[in-house]
Description:
Blueprint: H1 8-68, H2 85-127, H3 137-146, H4 154-157, E1 158-163, E2 166-169, H5 175-197, H6 204-225, H7 242-255, H8 257-260, E3 277-278, H9 284-293, H10 309-321, E4 336-337, H11 341-362
Antiparallel strand pairs: 1-2, 3-4
Helix pairs in contact: 1-2, 7-10, 9-10
Amino acid sequence: MNPYRDDRPHRMTMTCEIKQNKMNNLDQTKKSIKGICEQLRERQQNSKKFTSIVVLLLIASTGWAQDQSSGRSTFWSDPFNHPLFPLYLVSVLVLVTVILVLITAAFALRILNLFIERAAKERAEKLGLAYVKEISFWEKTWLRWNSLRPLSEEENLDMGHDYDGIRELDNHLPPWWKLLFYGTIVWGVFYLVAFHIIGSLPLSGQEYENEVALADQKAKAFLASQPTAAIDENALVYTKDDAILSKGKLVFSGSCVPCHRNDGGGNAIGPNITDPYWLHGGDIKSIYSTIKNGVVEKGMPMWGKAMSPSDVKAVAFYVMSLQGTNPANAKAPQGVLYKPVDSQVKDSTAVKLDTVKIQALAK
């Protein structure tokens, strides 16, 4: 080796190459940072769009609730003057803030993973190794909960059964499926003990009966709280009052249609109430009494326990208004022909006149 040999040109060449490599790496780093910044900017814009959508949904839900509200003063009818408005506002702001923080944290974690992945790629390139992407936590969790095996182990799972090019593999059920199956077993044991052995929880039939009893109590309490006008049954006189008839038609449609049809023509259960034949009297007093007290042996409920006296009166008046309407396919007449008192008086007067006329002709 010549000690006087000048190797400065070689050094300069190596220095230039190193500088060039550094410049290239710096350019790549700048490009990667620029791309990451663009992704961050795009995701921030998406975050703003998401926030705008949330605010619009809240405004829309407020408007919908105001449309659905009744005449009573509720939060949605006048939210700004409601005493709980500050609490609701702070709750909404906290919820939006938490959502934005979670979104920002997810974006920051994603950017950090991009930096780590790019640094690992550069390290592998410098060492001359092939870069293998590390499986993320979520991917590991997905593989673990589904018990997925890689394709490289497929030969070890082959059970030797082949039909039409389809091979049978020894794949086990995923853990989440087994967990659900074991959960149904545990729930079945709990259901058996709680509902059938101990009886601490009601079955569906008993629950239905409890709900019906509770509804009856509420109905009785409501009827008891409503002022009821006393009605003298002996002084009832039928009049064609439009208000009473409209109310009676509404009550009739909700309670009497299943047995008497909508037009009053009757069916297999109840008689026809549009003809002059009646089973229990056809005057307004008898009709009121029949509706109020019912006819238990013939399936007629005691509507006086479920209806107010004014409702019973309205239904009775509406039934009287159906006389002579003659609906199509009405049921055959039942009971005794009923004639009003005034028609009976007219008939008796006509008989007397005819008798006097016959006697005069006989003379």
